[in-house]
Amino acid sequence: MSGFSWPARVYWEDTDGGAIVYYANYLRYLERARTEWLRARGYSQQALAQQPGILFTVVSLQVDFRAPARLDDMLEISCEPRAEGPASMRFLQRIHRTGAARQLLLEASVRIACLDARTLRPKRLPGFLIDADPAGEPN
Questions:
Q1: Contact status, residue 2 vs residue 132, Cβ threshold 8 Å
Q2: Is the pLDDT of residue 84 over 60?
Q3: pTM exceeding the 0.85 threshold for the entire prediction
Q4: Average pLDDT over the chain, rounded to an integer
């Protein structure tokens, strides 16, 4: 599986009273980057819930905060997916501030389980998530 990055800007709504990104909002950036990774491969979560009837859920998360993001910062959120068992994947994710002041802000390890949309029981990862060429395109 290949890596992926997605750009984002820090808006007022993402910050606390000091114009610094509120810690829980980093999880939103991570989630959106994983969703955009999937979308870049030609799949939407809504369509996958319908056919083949799968959902994804976070089952574990480790986050290391390195430095704060601030109002109006441009960010790059990366995803490096790895299959981890028949029904789960792990995403190694990083958030960097971009531009001349490029800086690592956050590192995370996010374990995702694949579930049957009807029963919410674990379901084998579909082949298109595992069998991708290095450019991130489905085989």
A1: yes
A2: yes
A3: yes
A4: 91
Backbone angles phi, psi at 20, to 5 degrees: -110, 140
Residue 52 DSSP SS3: coil
* DSSP-derived pairing of the beta strands 54-65 and 4-9: unpaired
Work out the pLDDT band at 38, boundaries 50, 70, 90: very high
Active-site residue, 16 included: yes
Cα–Cα distance for residue pair 82/80, rounded to 1 Å: 7
What are the structural domains, with CATH classification, of the chain? Answer: 4-130 (3.10.129.10)
Q: Which of 16, 72, 131, 133 is catalytic?
A: 16
Report the C-alpha gap between 5 and 92 in whole angstroms. Answer: 11
Between 139 and 25, the higher pLDDT residue: 25
